[in-house]
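Subject: sequence -> structure tokens, single chain

Hey, anyone have a minute? Need the predicted structure for the following. Not urgent.
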Amino acid sequence: MKRFFNRLLPKSLRSSVVTIPVIRLHGTIMAGGGQLRPSLSLASTAGLIEKLFSFDAPAVAISINSPGGSPVQSRLIFRRIRDLAAEKNRKVLVFVEDVAASGGYMIAVAGDEIIADPSSIVGSIGVVSASFGFPELMKKIGVERRVHTAGQNKAVLDPFKPEKKEDVERLKALQLEVHETFIDLVKERRGTKLKDDPDLFTGLFWTAKKGLELGLVDALGDMRSVLKNRFGAKTQLKLITAPRGLFGRFGLFGSSKGFSAPDIAAAAASGLIDAAEERALWARFGL
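Reply:
Had a minute. Here:
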């Protein structure tokens, strides 16, 4: 609406300041997410994405810094961005910071353009499942694992039992299907920009400098410089953030909706596990 009325004014009275709304999608991608270590999911980002597209601007900007995570949540976030981009007729510019890999790259391809720092990490178009096995530990400490199921496949890949070849093959078959979905999405969005490289969809990752050659990104640069160069020196960036911070979520300083001590203790314990998984994801990219 603001742009509409601005066009009605004489050129001498028109505002030359362009405001570009910005959101930051930073972190690992997981369904739900802990209270102490919030993660990216459709539930945690939907409000920000909706608000991003509510601004009357020539484009919207999204800063991404994610090593990946849940393929489902990644695709849901991707889909919400594209649906609103089509509905509001907005150009989406994605800017990569340290890394947009795996699910992080899946979200990045929601952009009409992907711009990254030359040293950013991009790619990792693949699917991985990681876990631990404890059968020898169970024997050592004298603990017997007892599992009773209705359905012969209800206890596949039990970490406290030896791994079975047929269970691994079943898991790999599932991974291949998810991988195909990922590949199809990247091909749909990047199209002829992608170079014919045999390693492109093997799960390898590259710096954005190499990613530019492969067609994984469109340009090298940083958000502020690119936006000011494209929309004018007076361009302003408006960062959109969640309405409440950490203290608001936990109900501290006067809120009647606080957490009890057991709630906080349980969240802390869960947070340790989440932190280990998150650390492992970032560590794959040397971060």
